[in-house]
Amino acid sequence: MRGVRVQGLLRYLYGPGTNGEHLNPHIVAGFGDLADLEPAVRPDGRRDFRHLEGVLAQPLALLGERNYRKPVWHCAVRAAPEDPVLADEQWAQIAGEIMQRTGLVPAGDVDAVRWIAVRHADDHVHIVATLARPDGVRPEVWNDGYRVRDACRAVEARFGLRSTAPADRTAARRPKRGETEKAVRRGRPVPSRTFLHHKVQTAAAGAGSEREFFERLQDDGVLVRRRFSQRTAGELTGYAVAAPGDVNADGQPVWYGGGKLAADLTLPKLRRRWTGADDSVHSPSTIRPLSGRHLSTRTRQAVLRTTVRRAADKARTIAEFLDRLQDNGLLVKVRSSQYVPAQITGYAVALPAEPGDEAPTWHPGSRLADDLSLTRLQQRWASPGARDMPTAVVDDLTVEERQAFYDDAARAASYATSHIRRYLATNPHAVQDACWAASDALRTAAQATGNHHLRRAADTYDRAARAPYGHIPRPSPAGNALRTAARLLALTGSTMNRAAVSAMMLVANLISLLDTIAELRRLQHRQAQADAARKAAAHVREAQPAAPTNASQQAAQAAMPTQVQLAMAAFPNPWAPLQPTAPSRPAASAPSPSTSPSRRHR
């Protein structure tokens, strides 16, 4: 944390605390002699901070106008509840390690910043430093939090404390204390930062382009502000979002950029999510198409009809309609008039074919639905109340088509699981894209089913999905399959019953996928992400309806050896060992010579 005045911080550290929790405050480490730095006790029982305040603030006068706006550096270091109580000498070593690794107090540097470490409880200390060197140089504190994290992991190994996660930038930005208190005052269930993080992730998972992403956010009630380049006119360079009703003291919305929500939610990284993750893609206009490789025939037709209807609902001209179809990743072929060459009389759409697939299958609009022919669409756009007509995207799906969507999403999850298991021990980095895309599938599954267990699983799994240090993985077939499943689930809307049979297979396959990812993260020695995937799988198991089982089958399964249970886990369908049957003939009788070997085997 950063502050302006060191005097107020010292009085707080030596005071009773908010609830009287500060007991026996004293300095355990510092830049000089501890007995000389310790504030003396006056006859009235109060502390005299004048000497300590003077020596800490003295270097700030040398910098003058070159000072930081907040020159007081404050770091609280706390041990876990199960960790042993450390002595003052051990806390002194921890504080010294942190100051050295941050570069504020290099080893052997007599002109380093002035600092102290105050202990007033058994489980933590407070490190206080002024960001000014006695030689008149202003120290560099850029990315000091990551270096503090490295120092903490070093002392954890040295003193046998609880092992914590590295600062690999895989965690989302947590709400600040003021944001949390503001949410409590206004009766909101979560702070605005958390609320917007969920909304942006869900919109990005179900979208395939920038236009669809921003439209999904606006349809969900989120305020959106786009940022354009100051050099190139019309070039979109970023965005910010705000929660409805969340305003500052001036009554203006509180905006959060994508990077303030999570490392992979900035606009450039979202573009790489939609266009591909290889370095050869630079144009934000090309989108990642909805792959039809893992889709059934019924699903393809339903996807085409739903996408065309959505584009028609938001378009008002033929040119805008065709542009939206291409923006959604569909192949479009128009039919021109034989008498007026510039006049368009019809159109056909198809899902793009991937390398190695067959040629795309074209579907005219009139065959998708009667009201999707170009003539009917033009009549609809020409009507006076066309702009006020409600969308019918969700109601356009039949029960059978929604069932096919969930079945295809379940197959995509099963395919991704087998893909990860194939590279589990040989090349774990080749399946990072599938781990990242699994977050999209969880988000859209939670939104489509309305199941709070899946929503908790998506929130818990969030960290396990990201690659370290904000890297975007290269696309893979398994990742593309999961992203396709996410977009399918986004098309179903939020009308699905949470106990529907359609989602049972999807939930079961998601459990296998998350268990496999947890094992992958464990092999990668990324314990925090392995725990996140394991907890997410536990939440998904709570969403799975309990199936009635036979008591004898449960007893037989519990009595199986561990090797048999591991072998059964490798099969997609459950199976059981063959049960001994009574012989159909006396044991002494031999098989007839005329009986074939195959019949004897049966």
Question: How does the SSE layout of this entry go?
Answer:
Layout (H helix, E strand, L loop, with lengths): L1 E2 L2 H8 L12 E5 L3 H4 L2 E2 L5 E2 L1 H14 L8 E7 L9 H14 L13 E5 L4 E7 L13 H16 L17 H9 L6 H15 L3 H10 L3 E6 L7 E7 L13 E2 L9 H9 L21 H18 L3 H10 L3 E6 L7 E7 L12 E2 H4 L5 H9 L16 H24 L9 H18 L2 H14 L11 H15 L10 H22 L3 H17 L7 H8 L3 H8 L27 H5 L1
Antiparallel strand pairs: 1-5, 2-6, 3-4, 5-7, 6-7, 8-9, 9-10, 11-12, 12-13
Helix pairs in contact: 4-5, 7-8, 7-15, 10-11, 14-17, 14-18, 15-16, 15-17, 15-18, 16-19, 18-19
Outline the structure in words.
- The chain has 602 residues and is α+β, with helices and mostly antiparallel strands.
- The chain has 22 helices and 13 strands.
- Helix 14 (399-422) packs parallel to helix 18.
- The protein starts with a strand and ends with a helix.
